[in-house]
């Protein structure tokens, strides 16, 4: 995952509260996608398997090394940010001073072009220093989440971020009071102010959907109230669900939990998978009335704000911020639906290879072939990644090598370390990677994926001013997935035998299934329930679960039999509380596949286009930035090409499997 430097958003905030507090760039009308924001920093998850990861769950201390026992070269070096606590405190105090100075500028921006420039530059300085403080606080806390001093520093940083957001809340309304022609004349005369042209133009693009100052204040005041459904959903699903006990592969009784579910669903023992799936979803089904009421209230919140701001629909409001036409969303859903027979074929192949009478939802994640994976030492994984990404050129791979050798990465699991993997940095620091590397194929892909985020951030900061020094959610997963595409191609070329090829092919197939098909399925359901509510249909438990099961049945086809409790997944998925962002998983994967395949084919300009994309930051709108890399997501082609690749991979996998089976039978 990538942690985005978008200051001002925080956990549990409503769409409007996030919008009001986002002083990093022009506010969007709705929250950015895929984000569970803490202290204004959005945790952006990479999703290799379709499983959800905990936001801040400490790693298990069992049978892992102490941090002091990990060689220094495998631990990140945070002294590059602050050499000691006094240096941190100095930066903290400087940020407080910048906040106070910025607050005092209210009402001065319209005096002249120089006054406007001074305000914008001070805002940049404040945001940059704040980011550095917050990033250091978060990284040091995630090393060992049991350290109370680190927890206290993180809490202070969150409070500082909230204060900065409040201090900057006047900026956009004041810019909107300035006549666009006046601002443009100032920019014509001042090239330093002209740097902010896209930022200011984007604010004015949204002018018609901003209200009077008093109305804006009222909407902002409603934020904490309207965020209640999301907050209650989080509390209910994280703390108040009583999951049953099930029997593991050894017949021992174990307690089911949300976290353990993702281990059980990959079990080779079908009974274990079934018990875990039924146990989890029947627990959610037992709370269907409450969960449906929460999701319905959340949708009504979207309807309220969309109507208040003059949008035709919730979806239009959500996509307006990043300037994504609703036709892009429609194109994704329509194109994937057109190619659902390919997903049906996948299910049929899985049924045949696994020797099942029917395929259930709990059969979709276990590997189709039973092969013991070799452990991959971290240094070997690094060497393989460097070779696999050679097509991106010496500057790219040289920076990669520097990152691996210069302690940008915290590699191994240690007691109380944050789980999962992410990339995080600030405009004033290089990117940092948190890993919990265990030596699996998926871990190796995760390293390549997170380094894609790191390189995207590196090139953005290297080439863009502070105001454009981050990148949009719509583009966030492209660079990371390109790395995975190139790595998989390299691994296939270097595979020593058919078994290795099958493992790599299976990983690619599952990546497309879980990221393109499954996330589009979620996007279609999200669109449907909003349209039902906008049309006056009550979102009862029966409506929500029934419509979800209809869509699941359509996607997976006749060979997949759905247990009745599978419908409860429509009430379980947290994506639906993130307001039309889940579709970007699928669009990013398709865009990245398009770019990666053209690089593999050595298409002239493909690498150069990717580098332009990596370097653009947020200096243009997301669709325009993707076009720099040669991808037009307003057309079906990138999606169709990805789904054609899915079909080709399936064919190769099936053929190779049959060849290997015939060989073994002789």
Secondary structure elements and their pairing?
Elements: E1 2-5, H1 15-21, E2 35-38, E3 41-44, H2 85-103, H3 113-143, H4 148-167, H5 171-176, H6 180-189, H7 191-194, H8 197-205, H9 213-221, H10 223-226, H11 228-239, E4 245-247, E5 253-255, H12 258-264, H13 270-286, H14 288-308, H15 314-320, H16 326-338, H17 340-354, H18 378-388, H19 394-405, E6 409-410, E7 422-424, E8 432-434, H20 441-463, H21 478-494, H22 498-534, H23 541-556, H24 569-572, H25 583-600, H26 606-615, H27 622-628, H28 637-665
Residue share in helix: 55-70%
**In one word, what is the shape?**
globular
Identify the strand order in the major beta sheet: 1-3-2
Question: Major β-sheet, in short?
Answer: 3 strands, antiparallel
CATH C-level of the domain at 77-210? Mainly Alpha
CATH architectural category of the domain at 77-210: Up-down Bundle
Structural class: mainly alpha
pLDDT averaged over residues: 90
Would you report the number of β strands? 8
Give the CATH topology of the domain at 77-210: Butyryl-CoA Dehydrogenase, subunit A, domain 3
Low-confidence stretches: 6-62
Radius of gyration: 25 Å
N- and C-termini, Cα separation: 46 Å
Q: Which strand-content bin applies to the residues?
A: under 5%
């Amino acid at each position: 995952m990538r942690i985005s430097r978008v200051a001002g958003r925080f956990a549990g905030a409503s769409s409007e509260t996030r919008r009001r507090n986002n002083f990093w760039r022009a506010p969007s009308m709705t929250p950015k996608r895929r984000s569970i924001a803490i202290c204004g920093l959005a945790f952006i998850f990479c999703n290799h398997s379709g499983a959800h990861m905990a936001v801040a769950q400490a790693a298990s201390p069992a049978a892992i090394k102490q941090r002091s026992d990990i060689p220094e070269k495998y631990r990140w070096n945070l002294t590059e940010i602050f050499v000691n606590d006094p240096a941190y405190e100095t930066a903290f105090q400087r940020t407080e001073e910048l906040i106070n100075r910025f607050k005092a500028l209210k009402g001065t921006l319209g005096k002249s072009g120089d006054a406007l420039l001074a305000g914008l530059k001070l805002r940049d300085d404040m945001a940059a220093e704040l980011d550095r403080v917050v990033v250091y606080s978060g990284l040091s806390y995630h090393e060992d989440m049991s350290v109370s001093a680190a927890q206290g520093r993180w809490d202070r940083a969150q409070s500082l971020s909230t204060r900065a957001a409040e201090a900057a809340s006047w900026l956009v309304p004041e810019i909107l009071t300035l006549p666009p022609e006046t601002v443009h004349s100032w920019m014509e005369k001042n090239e330093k102010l002209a740097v902010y042209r896209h930022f200011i133009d984007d604010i004015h693009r949204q002018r018609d959907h901003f209200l009077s100052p008093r109305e804006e204040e009222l909407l902002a005041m409603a934020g904490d109230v309207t965020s209640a459904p999301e907050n209650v959903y989080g509390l209910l699903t994280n703390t108040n669900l009583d999951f049953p006990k099930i029997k593991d592969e050894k017949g021992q009784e174990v307690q089911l939990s949300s976290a353990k579910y993702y281990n059980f669903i990959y079990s080779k023992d079908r009974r274990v998978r079934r018990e875990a799936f039924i146990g989890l979803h029947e627990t959610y089904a037992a709370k269907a009335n409450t969960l449906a009421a929460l999701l319905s209230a959340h949708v009504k919140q979207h309807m309220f704000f969309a109507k208040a701001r003059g949008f035709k629909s919730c979806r239009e409001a959500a996509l307006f911020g990043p300037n994504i036409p609703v036709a892009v969303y429609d194109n994704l859903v329509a194109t994937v639906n057109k190619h659902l027979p390919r997903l049906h074929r996948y299910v049929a192949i899985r049924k045949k290879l696994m020797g099942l009478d029917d395929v259930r939802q709990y059969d979709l994640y276990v590997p189709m072939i039973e092969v013991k994976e070799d452990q991959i030492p971290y240094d070997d994984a690094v060497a393989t990644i460097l070779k696999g990404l050679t097509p991106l050129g010496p500057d790219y791979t040289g920076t990669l090598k520097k990152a691996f050798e210069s302690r940008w990465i915290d590699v191994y699991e240690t007691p109380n370390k944050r789980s999962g993997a992410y990339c995080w940095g600030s405009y004033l620091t290089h990117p940092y990677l948190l890993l919990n590397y265990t030596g699996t194929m998926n871990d190796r892909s995760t390293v390549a994926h997170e380094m894609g985020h790191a390189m995207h951030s590196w090139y953005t900061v290297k080439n863009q001013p502070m105001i454009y020094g981050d990148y949009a959610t719509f583009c966030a997963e492209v660079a990371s997935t390109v790395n995975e595409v190139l790595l998989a191609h390299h691994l296939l070329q270097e595979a020593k035998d058919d078994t290795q090829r099958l493992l790599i092919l299976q990983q690619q197939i599952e990546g497309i299934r879980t990221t393109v098909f499954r996330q589009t399925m979620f996007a279609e359901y999200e669109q449907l329930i909003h349209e039902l509510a906008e049309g006056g249909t009550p979102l009862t438990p029966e409506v929500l679960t029934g419509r979800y099961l209809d869509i699941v049945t359509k996607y997976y086809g006749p060979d997949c039999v759905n247990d009745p409790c599978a419908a409860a997944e429509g009430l379980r998925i947290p994506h639906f509380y993130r307001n039309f962002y889940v579709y970007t998983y699928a669009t990013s994967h398709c865009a990245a596949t398009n770019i990666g395949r053209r690089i593999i084919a050595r298409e002239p300009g493909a690498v150069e286009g990717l580098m332009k994309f990596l370097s653009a930051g947020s200096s243009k709108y997301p669709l325009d930035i993707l076009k720099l890399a040669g991808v037009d997501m307003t057309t079906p082609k990138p999606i169709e090409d990805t789904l054609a690749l899915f079909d080709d991979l399936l064919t190769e996998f099936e053929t190779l499997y049959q060849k290997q089976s015939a060989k073994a039978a002789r």
